[in-house]
Each structure stands twice: as C-alpha cells, then as structure tokens.
Amino acid sequence: MIIGERIKLLRKAKKLTQTELAKAIFVSYQLVSKWERNLSEPTAEMMFTIIDKYQLPFDFFLDPVTQQTQYTAKEVILNAFLESMIASYDKRPTIKKVAQVASLEPEHVALYFANSDELIYEFFNEVDRNIKIEIEAQIVSHHDLITIFINNMAPLLYDKRVQLHVLYTRPYIKGIWLAFIKSKYKRILLAHHQVDEQEGLALEYLIEVLTAFISVWLSQPNPEPLAAFQNRMRCLTGRPINQWL
Can you give the residue ranges of the HTH cro/C1-type domain (predicted)? Predict the structure, then answer.
C-alpha cells in the first residue's frame, strides 16, 4: 500500500475531510489532496507529525510485505545511504548519489524509495527498531528509567554508534532525528506510566537531558568506550528517577 492510500484510509477512519486533516497538521487541503492522489508525498518530518498527531505505530507508512520480500535490496540501499551521509557533512545525499554508491540505477532505487525523505524515514526506523523493542520490554517490567538507560539502552546505542554518529552530526538530518526519537520515547513512556501534569514536565526534562547525553557522547569523532560512558552516567545521575521529579 502506497503512502497516499494510507493517508486516505487514516483520514476516513478518523472521519475527517481533507480540509480538517490539513488544518490538524498545518498544511493546505490541496497538499493533502495531492498526497491522496499520489501526485506528491509528505516529507519524512511530516510523516512523523502525522504519526505523532494520531498516535500511530512508527512503522505506519511502511509496507510489511514489501519489507520482507525486498529486504536485501533495501538493505543495500540503506547501507549506501549511510555511506553517502558519512561522505557528505553538510548536504543531504540525493537518490542519484545513493544509487551511485549502491552500484544501482536511480530507477532501481526509485522502486523502493521515491525520494530522500522516504529513505530517511526507513533509515530512522531501521536504526531504532531493535533498540525500541528492547527498551519497551524493559519499561514494561517497571525498571528504573535511569537504570534502563545505563544498563540496557547504552549498549544498544554503542552497537549503532556509526549510524548514530552520522545522525547526531549531520545538520541536514539531526533536527528530524531528534524530533523522531524524542516523540517516540515519550510515547513509549507515557504508554506504560501514568503521570500527572508536574510529572509530565519532569518527563520532558528527562527526555531532553538523556537525549543531550547521547548527542554529546555519539557526536564525538571517537566516542568514549561503553563502560566509560556508563560510569560517567552513574556519577552524573546517581539518584533514582523518583528523586528527579
């Protein structure tokens, strides 16, 4: 199912007109119409906005069947995208450039990704997929959030340090990545913890602080070893989360 069809189904499920959906996400109804008629597609940032607004799964715009049957080709393209970003600090790689790195024709890449926004969206989900599954399982077990961050999340982040270093250092993608990750983990936490208004503010602070820790750590040309980062975090956070509130 293509993106325009998913947007149309979402709108109808919510009993919204194109105008009402457009107002809710601050775009014109003409743009929504173009999406649904497959004349254009939302940017990666807009897809995240729609997901956040309507509390959708973060893989809402992905096709599971296509993922399974075409995984190898997508993996090659995603790896080429990462290589292209490593080579380009201040300019987002084009589909043409990614195709060149992957030794594919641009038309071949376009079978999977119509533009770089779709590629970014898939790349984010691929980087975060296993991390999200593991961390959500820990949160469900009601473990202390700082302990989860240090003992469970930090090792997973370290394993992905090459990809995450790029996401935290490339100006053309860092802002979108931060919005994606903050929104996603806030939703996970709220799904498993009831918080009042004051605790909600504390949660906002906590997410900002932990994101800043990760950004500083993984933005370094040679991030410090995992054990050193974990020890640093234990020294800095030294108290259980309920004492942060």
Answer: 7-61
CA-to-CA distance for 70 and 111, rounded, in angstroms?
10
d(CA 157, CA 99): 28
Phi then psi for residue 243, to 5 deg, are -85, -10
- Quick one: residue 56, left, alpha or beta (phi over 0 = left, psi -120 to 50 = alpha)? beta
| Rounded Cα distance, 27 and 96, in Å | 29
Distance CA 217, CA 223 (A): 6
Q: How far apart are CA 133 and CA 163, in angstroms?
A: 18
Each residue's pLDDT tens digit, 151-160: 999 999 999 9
pTM check: above 0.85: no
Q: What is the pLDDT of residues 137-176, one digit of tens each?
A: 888 776 688 888 999 999 999 999 999 999 999 999 999 9
> How far apart are the C-alpha atoms of 169 and 171, rounded to whole Å?
6
How far is the first Cα of the chain from the last one, in angstroms, to the nearest whole number? 44
Nearest alpha-carbon partner for 147 in 207, 212, 74, 234: 234
Which residue, chain included where needed, has tokens 């096709």?
A: 63
Single-letter code of the amino acid located at 59: D
The position carrying tokens 């909600």 is 200
